[in-house]
Design a protein that fits this description.
This protein is an all-alpha fold. About 80% of the residues lie in helices and about 0% in strands. The longest helix is centred in the first third of the chain and has 39 residues. It is globular and about 65 Å long. It starts with a helix and ends in a 6-residue tail after the last helix. The model has no long low-confidence stretch (mean pLDDT about 80).
Length: about 500
């Protein structure tokens, strides 16, 4: 299997999903704008997503995939199926209990994560209602994440990468055709989320059947492997929770800011997910499975070479992504969101948050590359310690900047925090002698700097001749934006080609 080919394929499929996601957000922005209703929905949707990350990025990525990879390489098929069956049954039970508790204590959750909403009773009540409706989504999306973990272990990356498209499709359909059936109309989005979660899970099950790993859930509390897994669940949850604490604290801060602040940050974050979703998640999923396999088999040199490959891909994709998000912040926001209820002022505020996010692109991608290096070794303690330092640093930045920069400080702190986390993880890998960089890094970075500089110059020139981005319909703006992005990317790739880079240089083959 060619890892670069897999990465390109997954990134392309994810790109299609992201395009549909932006259509979704553009429709939401046009229909609801940025105000009380959208603030309430985005906050209510944030918590189930946080819990999904705890199960997906924490338990499944840090614990389940390395164990499953070990079973796949060393044990019989019956043992593998037993592990999957028992894990599924246990987490269905945990998820149902979590959802019931979440629905019951929804008012207290909103008070904790958005105390500023208490000053606006309408927003507070609406958020509670939306949270109760969306909470069961955690059951469906977490089970979908478990299926994704199994498929990724069998090098089936395409189907899981496409599944988020179904959530976007569900929200688009409910926003266009369903809002008139609900009061207030924003409730349609909550029901769309539930349907989207069900579709994401159902879509992956046939692929699971193809690899003969579709098994019925079971509860076997005497299973030693399950108990060994449960012993590691606490640290895994702590690790992911620490990484999300900054987001929760930022939500608390933003609840006291001007109405619309949560929505501005949400829309900027959605654009930030272009590089983190297209490249970061794809890299992380591929590397975790392959690194776990090499560590399990004792191929430590290959393990280090894989990390080096991942980091080079991170930088070669991260530089142009950061440039595009920073230089094209206003065109991106105006083209995708500035319609109907979404005003030019909303565009300005979202643009400011997006520019702040662009600073952390390399950090976001770098963490996605380096974290699997620890998880594949079943080392959760090190990422936890580094995450604690990161959170403290992030909130120091927040406290120092929130009064002057307002909502901008929240995205800026996350960006700088990701860079700090990336640096700390890299330091630990070198300190523990887990990773040794391959020769040629200084020359590699210098050539990337040349290509990036050329891209900046070309984009600056092109932007000078473009008309105001707030004029024209969506099709007209999209055509202009697409042409600018293509010109920028082509200039970057052309210079890379001139100075000797090629796809063959980054190809990496492994045995399936």
């Amino acid at each position: 299997m060619n890892l670069l080919k897999s990465l390109i394929t997954i990134s392309f499929v994810t790109f299609l999903s992201r395009i549909l996601g932006f259509i979704r957000d553009a429709i939401i922005a046009k229909t609801f704008g940025a105000g009380i209703a959208t603030d309430a929905f985005f906050l209510a949707f944030k918590l189930p997503n946080l819990l999904r990350r705890i199960f997906s990025d924490g338990i499944f990525s840090q614990i389940f995939i390395p164990i499953l990879e070990e079973h796949k390489n060393k044990k019989k098929e019956t043992s593998i199926k037993t592990l999957i069956s028992c894990t599924t049954g246990l987490f269905i039970l945990i998820l149902i209990i979590t959802s019931i508790i979440g629905v019951l204590i929804a008012p207290w959750i909103v008070i904790i994560i958005a105390p500023g909403f208490l000053d606006i009773p309408e927003k507070f009540t609406l958020t509670i209602k939306l949270l109760r409706l969306t909470f069961p989504y955690i059951i469906l999306i977490s089970l979908a994440s478990l299926v994704t973990a199994v498929l990724n272990t069998w090098n089936r990356f395409l189907i899981p990468a496409f599944s988020p498209t179904l959530l976007n499709f569900s929200i688009i359909m409910f926003t266009i055709f369903g809002t008139s059936f609900f009061h207030p109309p924003i409730l349609a989005l909550a029901w769309a989320v539930i349907l989207g979660g069900f579709l994401q899970l159902s879509y992956q099950l046939p692929e699971l059947k193809k690899i003969k790993m579709l098994v019925f859930p079971s509860l076997k509390f005497k299973n030693n492997e399950i108990w060994n897994m449960l012993k590691s669940v606490g640290p895994a949850i702590i690790c992911v929770s620490i990484n999300q604490i900054s987001n929760i604290i930022n939500t608390i801060f933003s609840s006291y800011l001007t109405s619309g602040s949560i929505s501005w940050i949400y829309y900027a974050d959605r654009l930030m997910e272009i590089p983190s979703g297209l490249h970061g998640i794809a890299l992380s999923n591929i590397l975790l499975s392959v690194l776990s396999r090499n560590y399990c088999c004792g191929n430590y040199k290959e393990y280090s070479r894989l990390l080096d490959w991942g980091l080079r891909i991170c930088f070669i994709l991260g530089f142009p992504s950061a440039i595009v998000l920073g230089m094209l912040a206003h065109p991106l926001v105006a083209t995708l969101f500035q319609y109907g209820q979404f005003t030019s002022f909303d565009t300005l505020m979202t643009k400011q948050a997006l520019i702040s996010y662009s600073i952390g692109v390399i950090g976001f991608l770098g963490v996605k590359v380096l974290s699997p290096a620890f998880y594949s070794r079943k080392d959760i303690k090190t990422p936890i310690n580094m995450a604690i330092i990161t959170v403290l640093s992030t909130q120091i930045i927040n406290i120092a900047c929130i009064n002057t920069l307002k909502h901008i400080s929240l995205s800026l702190s996350i960006s700088l925090g990701s860079c700090i986390n990336f640096a700390l993880l890299y330091w630990q890998l070198r300190k523990k002698k887990i990773f040794t960089p391959q020769p040629g890094w200084l020359n590699f970075l210098f050539r990337l700097l040349i290509a990036s500089s050329a891209m900046i110059i070309i984009l600056f020139i092109v932007l000078q001749i473009m008309p105001d981005w707030g004029t024209g319909n969506m099709v007209d703006r999209l055509l202009r934006l697409t042409s600018v992005v293509i010109i920028g990317i082509l200039s970057y790739l052309t210079v890379l080609w001139i100075i000797g880079f090629s796809l063959k240089y980054f190809s990496y083959f492994i045995n399936d």
